[in-house]
Amino acid sequence: MVRIKWVLVVSFALAMAIGFSASPQKSLAQKQTTPYGLGAYRDNQCVVCHLSLTEPLRISAHFYEWLNSKHSEKAVGCEKCHGGNALAKDKEDAHKGVLRSSFPQSRLHLQNLPATCNSCHQETVTAFVQSKHFQALKDSGVGPSCTTCHHHMASAVIYWPPETSQLCAACHKAEGNPAARYAQAPAKAADVLLAFNRADEVIEWSQFLISEGHKRRMQLKAEEEELKKLSLILKDAKVKWHEFDLEGSRQHADQVFMEATNVKNRLVRKGL
Ligand code: HEC
Ligand code: HEC
Ligand code: HEC
Ligand code: HEC
Ligand code: HEC
Q: Range with the lowest mean pLDDT among 1-5, 82-86, 98-102, 176-180?
């Protein structure tokens, strides 16, 4: 009896171990076969060399964080943010111009991030530089910058409302911080994120119903067009959020939610 139990425990542990080790490997293999996967980085020496580094841990861990980000998927290599020469095989040559983010001259210093990210995220940065946050960041260095909310390599966007609220509270509920004048910002920000999530979900629901309708060869052009328009309004609201006009962002998200709900109800009435 005891032996059987141990066999079970051991085989369970083995299954877990295989399960855990198999999944990252699978995703690596999958990435290598996709057009934007590592195959696209064959000649990118930053990626080739950093892929082979296991030490120091701090450096290696950043590589894996990038690997799992939207950026690696979309062919945004290290040099696009860090600078340096991605064609150089020699470390010193490759690293020319690469400065740790703590250096004020680094492209990745908090105060310089908006300019660095601007090459690809112009609309978002344009919204951000109009905010009091950018002003505070520029004047005293105390405002939040892109990585305050998006992790180092934008491997994560904050989606979880309580997390957002805590993040804002670090300044907006801190005594003596000029941001404490806007003490209601954390609670309002959590509501905006809830409203974004709700709108995202109902759009996704409607898109699912439309794809079901297509399987049944139903004519759903009007609904499709309307959803496309609503998705764009929501995308725009997420860009505008970077101005930190929290009421405005909330209104747009709610408008999208209401209208997408109408579309969803219409689809349901059509038997979907
Ligand atoms: C031939 C290998 C090699 C190439 C090519 C290479 N690196 Fe590195 N990189 C390293 C090693 C090794 C380290 C660890 C620190 C050290 O030895 O300088 C490192 C460290 C770094 C760091 C951390 C610096 C710090 O001290 O915090 C960054 C950022 C970095 N590399 C970015 C890049 C970028 C961007 C490119 C391409 C433009 C690149 N690397 C190309 C080997 C390489
Ligand atoms: C989308 C922009 C972006 C890309 C692409 C990117 N990084 Fe980074 N990386 C950053 C930012 C911003 C920081 C600093 C902020 C932080 O660490 O919180 C950083 C920090 C680092 C650090 C820690 C040292 C430092 O400067 O603070 C290393 C090491 C690093 N990145 C390596 C890489 C490697 C290797 C690649 C490519 C495989 C890469 N990064 C791709 C934005 C990027
Ligand atoms: C060379 C172009 C390029 C640069 C530079 C760049 N990005 Fe991106 N970024 C992209 C692309 C492409 C996407 C994917 C967009 C999409 O799928 O709609 C993306 C996506 C994102 C996302 C969404 C991630 C998600 O999971 O949905 C965030 C957040 C982001 N970037 C932040 C940044 C920040 C912060 C910087 C500066 C440190 C930066 N980016 C620099 C091209 C870039
Ligand atoms: C105070 C927090 C915060 C700061 C600072 C911030 N962002 Fe964002 N960002 C967000 C939130 C929240 C979203 C919306 C996430 C969602 O629901 O999709 C977002 C979304 C994005 C997206 C994706 C938009 C989309 O289409 O889904 C990009 C790209 C982005 N931010 C880039 C940046 C850049 C570049 C900076 C710096 C100039 C920056 N962000 C600063 C919180 C922030
Ligand atoms: C690193 C500190 C810091 C963080 C984190 C931070 N803020 Fe701020 N915030 C400031 C500062 C500083 C000001 C400007 C205060 C002043 O007027 O002097 C400000 C101002 C604001 C304002 C007033 C803007 C205006 O134009 O009237 C809003 C709204 C705001 N923040 C929302 C947020 C939200 C939402 C978050 C979290 C997603 C957040 N902040 C996170 C520091 C921060």
A: 1-5
User: What's the CA gap between 105 and 85, in Å, rounded?
Assistant: 17
The C-alpha atoms of residue 264 and residue 203 are separated, in whole angstroms, by 8
* pLDDT higher than threshold 90 for residue 102: yes
Rounded-to-integer distance, Cα 147 and Cα 157, Å: 10
C-beta of 107 in contact with ligand 1 (< 6 A)? no
Average pLDDT value for residue range 84-97: 97
pTM of the model: 0.87
Q: Tell me which residue has its CA closest to atom 36 in ligand 3.
A: 117
| CA 83 to ligand 4 center in whole angstroms | 22
The CB of 51 under 6 Å from ligand 1? The reply is: no
Residue the block writes with tokens 């020496």:
45
Q: Does pLDDT of 26 surpass 50?
A: no
Q: How confident is the model at residue 155 (pLDDT cuts 50, 70, 90)?
A: low
The two three-digit tokens of residue 52, written as one number: 């082979």
Would you give the distance in Å from CA 250 to the centre of its chain? 20
Per domain, the residue ranges of the chain are 2-94, 158-269
- Asked if 146 and 118 touch (Cβ cutoff 8 Å), the reply is no
